[in-house]
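pasting for the record
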Amino acid sequence: MAESERDNHARRGERRGDPERRNRIIEACLDVIAEKGVAGTSHRVVATAAGVPLGSMTYYFDGMDDLLHQAFERFTDESVRRMRERFAAVTTRDQACDAVVRTITEDVFRSQHDLNLNLEFYTLAARDPSYRDITTRWMDRSREQLRRFFDPHTAQLLDAMIEGLSIHCALSTVPPSEDDIREGVRRIASAA
């Protein structure tokens, strides 16, 4: 068997032997970004964090941009999934206001890890327009939940409040209180 055939056979065997490798790499990438930032994220660092051979990186991803895109897609998909679950049983506008408060206090403020990922993603998307498709889809899907109970303008303002508070919480030594968040949501919702 030729060397290239052995390499291809070995890769196919790796994939069959470790079907979760790609997912592990993406999760490790998110952890590395949260700890070291996008600037400190490389194939080598992510491979080490995922416990996979460095060659796995190019097997599963077409380069660092592809890995970053997929990692941030995963992060935003998870964020939207949590928001959809939170709004699934909501039937009234008051319940929707409470769901917005819970989204902020329990999902957005959930961990420094996620706050760091938010900031890194915002910074990357601000500098590189190729990531804005992810932010646009993320905002659209979040606002879709809000528009079930609020007009489009109010949904946009509430979404901006959610995103803005994630930045404030990540950068502040004293995050806003739940009462302050509830008051902000009430003011925006009642102005509509």
